[in-house]
Every structure is written in structure tokens, then in C-alpha cells.
Amino acid sequence: MDGRFVFILHEEQILVAKVITLYSKGGGKGGKHSWVPQVNNIGAISYMLTQTFEHSIGRTFQRVHQKYACMGMSRFAHLPPGSVLCQINDNVKTTSDGVELTVKAHKVFKELGTEKTALGKAVSSLNTVRRKGKSNISMFDIEDIDDVSS
Questions:
Q1: What is the pLDDT of residues 30-45, one digit of tens each?
Q2: CA-based angle 33:136:29, to the nearest 5?
Q3: What is the pTM of this model?
Q4: Closest to 49 in 3D by CA, of 13, 89, 4
Q5: C-alpha span between 104 and 90 (Å, rounded)
Q6: DSSP strand E in 80-133: where?
Q7: DSSP codes, 47-73
Q8: Counting beta carbons within 10 angstroms of the beta carbon of residue 83, is it exposed (0 to 12), middle (13 to 18) or buried (19 or more)?
Q9: Rounded CA gap, 68 and 21, in Å?
């Protein structure tokens, strides 16, 4: 999956993301999160590092998100697998400013956009850790909790 492109839901936006690296947790309660070259099932991923691209116009997605345009910075995200909506199977054209989707992949993006509210609820549920005897917690908050090892 390294180098592949996926659609993700992150910070209430549907984005294109390039998978840079994958992490998987080893067996057992105290298992370590380690880099893996590939996985057969997205459920085997504990986290993935991605470069994200924000929709610009038409089939074009920009590496510099509008919110951070004054700094000219590319955006990266460390995401749990529940944030991935689907893999982009078509070739994604990369440019110095971002990426361009095929007509077919852009159609998928538009379809995902029509279901953004429902997808947001599903992603939130998938990214929630259910803890026995304790309140549930978002996977994005886990690093801030002392009694949960990552």
C-alpha cells in the first residue's frame, strides 16, 4: 500500500492521501507498533503516515491546503485505518503542486462527497476505542492518555 493513493476523511474533509508508510501492532497486549512493507487487510494496520491533498478545482487536488497557504507547507497525517474510505485504483498523476485524478476516480470523490455526513459518523465510530470498564476514546486522543500504550 506504500505509495498508493486513498480517499480519507480527515478533519471533516474528504481528501486524497498518498500512503507513505504503514505500521502494524505485533501480537499480544504489549505488542509494539512496527513498520510493515504491506498488508493483506486494512484491519492489520494500526496507523499509516500519509501526505494529504485538498480538493482545488475539477480533478485537481493541491498539496498546500488553503488553511496553510500563507506558509506554503505540504500536509501530512498520521491516521488510523478507520479514516480510509477507499483505495484509488486508477493512476493518479502527480505534479509539483499536487495530484490530478482520472475522470473515474473524480466521480468516486464526488459520490463520497454526497455521503460525507454519514461517512463522518462511520469514521468516528471506527476510530473509537472501546475500553472495558472505562469511557470510550477517540484513537486521535490515545497518545494523550497515560494508561493506554501505543
A1: 777 788 878 887 877 8
A2: 30
A3: 0.78
A4: 4
A5: 8
A6: 84-87, 93-94, 98-100, 128-129
A7: EEEEEEEEEEETTEEESB-GGGGGGT-
A8: buried
A9: 24
